[in-house]
Design a protein that fits this description.
Shape: globular
Structural class: alpha+beta
Pfam families: Y1_Tnp
Low-confidence stretches: 182-186
Protein name: Transposase
Radius of gyration: 20 Å
Organism: Blautia intestinihominis
Largest sheet: 4 strands, antiparallel
Order of helices and strands: EHEEHEHHHHHHHHHH
InterPro entries: Transposase_17 (IPR002686), Transposase_17_sf (IPR036515)
CATH class of the largest domain: Alpha Beta
Strand content: 5-15%
CATH topology of the largest domain: Alpha-Beta Plaits
Length: about 260
C-alpha cells in the first residue's frame, strides 16, 4: 500500500518528531547531542529552513521548523543520513537508528504554533527530567529566555506576544496539552532500568549490548526481564526488537549471580 501523502502546512511550519528504532536511546552522551545540533545547524544554512524550537530527548527528537524552498522530507532525510553515518561509525554499528518515517504535524494557525512551541519546551518537564521549565539543557529554551544569539529563529515566536515577559510567562505556565504525544507505559523509570542494566551486565549503552555475542546477549535479556524491566523498556534501552526479546524469554538460559 502506498504511503499517504503528508498534509501541507498553511504556514509552511511543521512540528516533527523523530524516534529511535524500537524506541531505543539515540543520545548516549553529551557529544551525541552536540553532534546532532551541529548537523541541524549545518543543514539549516544549506537547505534554507528556519528552526523555531527543538528538544532532544534521549530516545526521540522534537523540531519546530519553517520551510520554503526545501520540503521537510528532504530536510529530514539529509539530517538523518548524516547523523546515522556518524553515529554508526562512532559506535561501530550498522543499520537503522531512527524509525522508518518521522512523524509530522502541520501548523496551520498562530494559536497552534504557540501551543506546539510550549509543548516542545515542556517535554522534559512532563517526562520528569526537570522540575521547572528551563533546567533541561538540550532544548532551545534558553534562546528565548536569555534572548541569546544562536541559530534559533526566535523573532517569529516572540512576535506572537506583547512582550518578552509575556512570552516567558506563557512558556512557563502549566499545560497538559498534547501534540503528537510520545506515549510510554513503563512503570520502572529509564534511569532505574539503566542502573539495573549497568549493574547486571557489562553494558553501558545500546551499542555495547548490540556488540555482545548472541548467547551472552540472550542470557542478559532473560536476567534483566526477571529483574523487573518490561519487554518494551528492554527493547528501548538495548535496541533489541521486542519480537527477539519475547523469543529469548521463552527459552531457558543459565546465568550466574
Amino acid at each position: 500500500m502506498p504511503r499517504q501523502a503528508r498534509k501541507k502546512s498553511a504556514l509552511n511550519i511543521n512540528h516533527i518528531i523523530l524516534r529511535g528504532v524500537n524506541q531505543q536511546i539515540i543520545f548516549e552522551d553529551e557529544y551525541d547531542y552536540q553532534q546532532f545540533i551541529s548537523i541541524l545547524r549545518y543543514y539549516k544554512d544549506i537547505c534554507n529552513f528556519r528552526v523555531y524550537a527543538y528538544c532532544l530527548m534521549n530516545n526521540h527528537i522534537h523540531l519546530l521548523i519553517g520551510h520554503t524552498s526545501t520540503e521537510p522530507g528532504m530536510i529530514m532525510q539529509k539530517i538523518e543520513v548524516k547523523f546515522v553515518r556518524w553515529y554508526n561509525q562512532r559506535y561501530q554499528r550498522i543499520g537503522n537508528l531512527f524509525q522508518d518515517r518521522y512523524k509530522s504535524e502541520p501548523v496551520n494557525d498562530l494559536g497552534h504554533l504557540k501551543t506546539i512551541f510550549r509543548y516542545i519546551h515542556q517535554n522534559p518537564l512532563h517526562a520528569g527530567l526537570e522540575t521547572i521549565p528551563g533546567t533541561y539543557f538540550w532544548s532551545s529554551y534558553h534562546a528565548y529566555a536569555d534572548l541569546e544569539a544562536s541559530f534559533i529563529d526566535i523573532d517569529k515566536i516572540l512576535s506572537l506576544f506583547q512582550s518578552h515577559v509575556e512570552c516567558m510567562n506563557y512558556l512557563n505556565s502549566n499545560s497538559d496539552e498534547k501534540c503528537m504525544e510520545h506515549h510510554s507505559s513503563v512503570h520502572l523509570s529509564d534511569v532505574d532500568a539503566l542502573r539495573i542494566i549497568q549493574a547486571k551486565t557489562s553494558c553501558n549503552s545500546p551499542s555495547d549490548f548490540q556488540r555482545l555475542d548472541l548467547f551472552t546477549r540472550n542470557q542478559y535479556l532473560q536476567l534483566l526481564k526477571h529483574s523487573g524491566i518490561s519487554v518494551r523498556q528492554l527493547s528501548r534501552l538495548t535496541g533489541i526488537s521486542r519480537t527477539s526479546i519475547n523469543t529469548v524469554i521463552k527459552t531457558q538460559y543459565p546465568w550466574g549471580d
